[in-house]
What does this fold into?
Amino acid sequence: MVLTTLLPRPGRVPLQQPGRAPLQQHVRAPLRQHIRAPLQQHVRAAFGLAVTIAGLFACSRAAAEPPVISPRPAPTGLAEAPEVHVSSDISTKPAVAQPLDARQRALFLAPAADEPAAELGGVTEARKGQHYVTGNERTLEAFYPRIHELGGAYVGVGSDQAYVLLGWSRAELAWLIDYDPVVVELHAVYHALFAAAATPERFLALWQREHKADAIAALHAAYPGELGRRREALFRQYRARVAKRLGELQSTMSAAAVPSFLNGIDEYTYVRGLIQAGRVRALLADLGRDGAVREVAAAARRLGTPVRVVYLSNAEQYWELLPPAFRTNLAALPVDERSVVLRTLLTWETNKDYRYNAQPARNYQRWLAIPWVETIYDVVRRKHITAPGDDLFETTDLPDAARLRRRSERRAQARLQLAEQPLSEQPPPAL
It folds into this structure.
């Protein structure tokens, strides 16, 4: 058996693998070779000596017997590296996230926040202006096999969804972005309660009414003064709503037999450790604006860490036309062949849920580079969204520029005809 270690590549932000098995656990085969031969040679020797050697052999073998563990794949960077062979005897306990050094931390915190949005959008007029302090996806576990232990960096919108996806992907760095300042502030509440709770059970308890005083004390310990008072007010305002959502997520994941930070100690420990190591940052950032997202992309590139998971929720459905800044933001992200874009596509009227879509990040960048790709429905056709089948479907088709151009021209003609109609004859806006 060849034993090698995971070697951090230059510029990478490595995670330390703790709990490596003692050396004798990695020399099982050599022990057998070097002990069996002497046994065979001396088996006819004096009875007492034979018994002694046999006892030593049995003890050595017992000490060398490792547990049966599935190895964690070695993380990969922006560039291909020589293949690394990992012994199956190496422990696969959650990696302990080490704090960033001064240079890495400066790069990680370098992206500046965007200004708050003038208006909070929505898929319809009726859904505009809402603070999505909790997710409402009912089948997030559909993403689990697609992103399991991808590593790298995570960039995603939303609130509780981030911690579910971080636990699954084993991200090394995470920028939790949103254009709603309330959502960004709520992440600070999460982080204080993660610090105060060593287990998922305790974390969930801190959101319950009977443990509210403990949670508030944890907030003030983490954020003294005015900052603590502001975050206490936020906690009081949304505590019950978050508690309900987290309880539902825990039940859903348990029923699906999928581990998460709410029902799996490994996932919880990993996410908590990542936060405590200062590798998770909540940032006010607008996907549809020049600024923070581009700076996050630059930071990830300088840190040598590919963005492996991009979670968009259903943000693309908010836009009638994909903003130019959104295209350039996604194009700027340093991704590799393992990177994936995750999105949800609202189908509430038919299933009270979403369809869950994954798309290789490089594939999506190719689509967005074509000017005639105007909406998300050019990339993911409506017939695929509404088709019956599994909750997760993947988009891997390559764009057909000629077909997209014809479709764009037809749309432009239809808009021109609509603009020429009297206002009384135009259809009412969708609600």
In short: Residues 102-401 form one domain. DSSP finds 17 helices and seven strands in the chain. Confidence is low (pLDDT under 50) at residues 1-11, 16-93. Strands lie at 153-156, 173-178, 280-284, 307-311, 340-346, 354-360, 392-394.
